Amino acid sequence: MNEFLRKKWEMAGLADDYIFNKVMLDYDICLEVLRRILPDLHIKKIKLPNNQQEFAVAPDAKAVRFDIYTTDEQGNHYDIEMQVADHHNIAKRIRYYQTASSMEAYDKGQPYEQADDSYVIFFCNFDPFQLGQQRYVLHKHIDEIPEQIIEDGQTDILFNVPSLRHDVDPKMQAFLDMIAQREVEATDPLVVKLKERIAVVKRNRKWRSEYMRRSVYEMDQEMREKKIREGERKVRDGKREILEGKRELQKSRREILEGKNEVQKGKREIQKSKREIKEGQDRLKEKEQLIQEREQKLHENQQMIIKTSIVAMRELNIDETTIKKEIKEKFDLSDKEIKDYFAE
Known about the structure:
single chain; about 350 residues; alpha+beta; 6-stranded mixed β-sheet; 10 helices; about 15% strand
């Protein structure tokens, strides 16, 4: 495990959210990245970047923890995020981050029109909207007049890091290439600073230990979630097998009913002829034997399903009382039958 974590630490680059956060804490790097993302703002200076700042829109609301948060000399708010995995919730995730960031833009007693602008910026290691763009800039607009943008001071910017379209400015492309660990022009001052900063981060023993502890926690969490998903799958399989068993039982009952109808038909034919009586009796015996064999097979199948279900629920650490109750209700078993199954 230690060797695995050591190699993971050595190989980690800007695409790793932990490394990204520590690198972006550097004032000069953060300022230059913002300038490359938003060149039209002509940002002169920012407050010292804040790592993992937490906001809550309301006391009982879900809190949001920003990767990198800062403001500039004009009061504009910036939240910069590294999104490693695609959880298919990016739009609503951005909405919540923007809400939290925007709340900071409204001072108490301040008129609405004086609220600061808020920028939420996501660097995604995947195409966030699966539309093939390298950069997505989101604003509100009027549905009936799509070209009419609503100037509410909120801007969302998402970068598709793996994209090779090169639709962005060359300086911005260099930063994206650094994240994606592609070949980059070494003379770019930001590239030089990024490489130096990454080296500083990698030499920091405290950050290295913190990274490893977090990695262990994340792996444990992933393993627990995997076990939960596996348990849920076994429960679903058990329920499906029980349902199939019930269907087989219903089918058997229908066949038994059909057999009884055949018996009645045979009895009626007996009255017509002794020869027909003998033939009808023979057919009935054959049918009854077939039904008995099928009932026996169904009974064996039901036993197997019940035993499998008991094992599955035990693996999920469900207590014996609950298991007995569930099995008894699902299969309409007597107390004696339940006792026999759990005595095995």
